[in-house]
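re: ur question from earlier - yeah i can do the single chain one, its not a big deal. heres the input i used so u can compare w yours
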Amino acid sequence: MKRFFLPFLAIATLFLAINNIYLSEKLEKSTSQNKVIEVLDGDSLNLAYGLRVRLSNLDTPELEFCGGKEAKERLEKLVLGKNVRLEIIGSDNMGRSLALIYINDILVNEVLLKEGWARYDGSPNSEREKLKAAYDYAFTNHLGIFSPLCFSEEPPNSRCLIKGNVDRHDRNTKTYHFPGCSGYPQVMVEKDLGEDWFCSEKEAEAAGFVKSKNCYGKKYN
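and the output i got, formated as tokens:
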């Protein structure tokens, strides 16, 4: 019996060793596939194996808007060229995977929100409360896009009082307001959303804004 058992034990040991090597190589390959090879903007990136990913629960400015370049640079510093861990929670209408992204124990989504480079989206997931708290911290402390860099209550020029406003539900709806228009004092200029101050109605219209209904019959002087 012993004569048959020893060769069997040797074969089993060899099999386990080969299997462990295979699993180790598979894990290494899987990890390398999660390497970030490209950061597209402040909230989207590409992985080595072709997966397109968008960070969940946040929205960073478009690259041409205030804070967009800074948000992209911050994301690049956090993840570019590194292996990440994903918790995929769904997909968007562009076919990208929506995900929580981790570098070791660091939740990248939380970092961007806490430093003020993104607005919060309350989609449900395991880290929602943590992400909301990070956003509240940035907003309360006027960080990033919530700082005077992008969030302005006063115009840069006292003669340029026209406020260009973008509808939160339809980014293609852009209107402008000026002193004398109903509700003018309540309109805020948030440059990370593509809003801005203008010196004339002609300038505002050239930027794609139309006169608010609250201003009809009035002209900016």
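The chain has two domains: 35-146, 153-215. not sure if urs matches, ping me
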